[in-house]
């Protein structure tokens, strides 16, 4: 498979995934999926702003959703999840677009950036000249045709597991508290460290420590020490009763911030026009270097990615292609991992934890 063919395949898979996710969250689109995982709003938005560069209609409809539901989105968390300048430019352009169409919006784009002198087309496959560029996107270096909101988007259906993040935000507000509670309620781990919570919540560890301390002080969260590390856990049963959740329908956690970051990097790497000019040997070499960079991140997120040691020379390219296809299949598949029941903790561990709670 050529690099261009792989890129087309990845583009189709990822735009399809994005449509399926947003169709369940209020964008006017059809989908047969009913995912049990809890979506990560800001991670999904960043992913779609990149994937949508290959699907203008997806991009426009997600902007419309953002305009409709801006009160449920965390600007701070969106910026915290930006991994590079390209992420920041896309995010700020989207925020500026919402601000232009809703002057009362709380979205404020970064004001520290100067307008690039040579803007580039936002949509990759478009060959048309942009005669009437959108000012919000132009200010961040993107040539995007000016469009009006479609007005078709609705609110996320809060009763669905995929909308659990929004349900928590409606309950306790947009901020670190809702993200901490969402992670503690959906992770498959019975107890977690502050660092694990901070990575999932995408807020500064200092803020997370303050939030955890407040939750411990008020009772929902307990803490204990084990092997010189402080761990935190939440009794899920009262929350299940409060939210009307059963064990079988409980939302599950996926490491979307990490997965979508890695997928964005994959899309950008495959979109590099330079790949088309490389010989098979050099293409395999570039793929080997790229895989070496991504493999640890995918492994940490629970997704297998090919090791550069799997095949020498040009033989690595088909291994790389197979690995990318495996990654895409894994990302699209809802693992449906259940949460540990309170009784599933080993008795010795429960006793040790109970004796060290503070």
Concise overview:
The chain is mainly α and 358 residues long.
Q: Total helix count?
A: 15
Largest sheet: 3 strands, antiparallel
Strand order of the largest sheet: 3-5-4
Basic shape = globular
Number of strands: 5
Helix percentage range: 40-55%
Q: Termini distance?
A: 58 Å
Radius of gyration: 22 Å
Uncertain spans:
337-358
* Element order: H for helix, E for strand: HHHHHEHEHHEHHEEHHHHH
Please state the average pLDDT score.
87
Strand content: 5-15%
Secondary-structure-derived class: mainly alpha
What does this protein look like?
By secondary structure, the chain is mainly alpha-helical. The protein is 52% helix and 5% strand. The protein has three domains: 3-143, no CATH class; 175-254, Orthogonal Bundle (Arc Repressor Mutant, subunit A); 256-332. Strands 3-5-4 form a three-stranded antiparallel β-sheet. Strands 1-2 form a two-stranded parallel ribbon.
Write the layout of secondary structure elements.
Layout: H1 3-23, H2 41-51, H3 56-68, H4 75-80, H5 85-101, E1 120-121, H6 135-138, E2 142-143, H7 164-172, H8 176-186, E3 192-193, H9 194-201, H10 205-218, E4 221-226, E5 229-234, H11 236-243, H12 256-270, H13 280-300, H14 316-332, H15 347-356
Parallel strand pairs: 1-2
Antiparallel strand pairs: 3-5, 4-5
Helix pairs in contact: 1-2, 1-14, 2-12, 3-5, 7-8, 8-9, 9-10, 12-13, 13-14
